[in-house]
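note to self — DONT lose this again. spent like an hour looking for the file last time. sequence + predicted structure for the chain T wanted, 353 res
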Amino acid sequence: SVGPGKSTEGSRHIISVVDRDDDRPVWITVWGAPTDLAQALWDVSHNRNKAELAAFISRMRVYDIAGQDDCGGWICHNFPSIFWLRSVDMFQAISVRIARPFPPYVTGPNLETFTTDWVAENVRNHGPLGALYPERKWKYEGDTPAYLHLLPIGLNDPEKFTHGGWGGRFNLARTTNPPTFNKRYTEGEKEFHNFEMHTGAKDTWHYKGKTYSSHYAGLFRWREPFQNDFAARMDWSLADSYEKANHNPVAAFDNDTSRKYVILKAQPGDRVKLSAAGTSDPDGDEVAYRWFHYAEASDKPYQGKIAIENANRENAGFVMPGLGRNEEVHIILEVRDSGSPPLFGYRRIIVRQ
């Protein structure tokens, strides 16, 4: 519960961080109950005027895993302008469990990096840090997509939640009264109807001759890259020199090695040139290129097919289709190195008319 005299160290800290003289948004990832956030908002709403409260709320971005109590509903009902992403159950695509396994459409097909043996070899048996990682009694991870969404890997801008990335992809239109992962909490949030949040969006992903179309597929498609990244970070914790571990390749677009997404303009019938010139690997590994059309990405994606020529080469291209009003074509450059474990680098190219 929230109210007078219920401020906590956590709620006060949230206020102090949001109040800093810093233009960057404050991301709050919710891996349990957002009670401290609720109290912070209550305190600010009772001690500042409407304009000050609106400015405070505008600084915050929330990524909520599962709605693990009824506070999210209370917050979004009372502060409807807040930026709130709720992964109702999309996160389960990373929390593969062995006791009472999820159904196949949740578990997905590519489980090589989620087995008990893989985690033991690549995480738990990696020195004192790995020893802290618990043995699986129920399931692994779960809340991690809220963190992965924020990694600056060149794949996504956290602010552009319809673009998709290692933390999944979300719908532009908000969902009214989305459920939580728990029926009891969903029942508790009924007191705060109507409230709205952005929830997980459906991706279509092809793997070994089968098509997966669900919001879980928005995480299935990145499993190998983000799990290998986890394994590499554990290697870094043991290596006594840079040379003794693998590092991510640097994906470049036309010699631009930043991680910002690229905006191109083209007219129907133009050949759009895609160049990964300038791509490199810090360890000197060979790299493999993959260009692909991320058909669902964008606030207003172009849903037609894009045929990319030389999609597995440094230089590729496609013929620009005619786009509807405000439509975009999102092309992803994925670069994979030949190290152990193989690591990935990304750039996103957004093409508009």
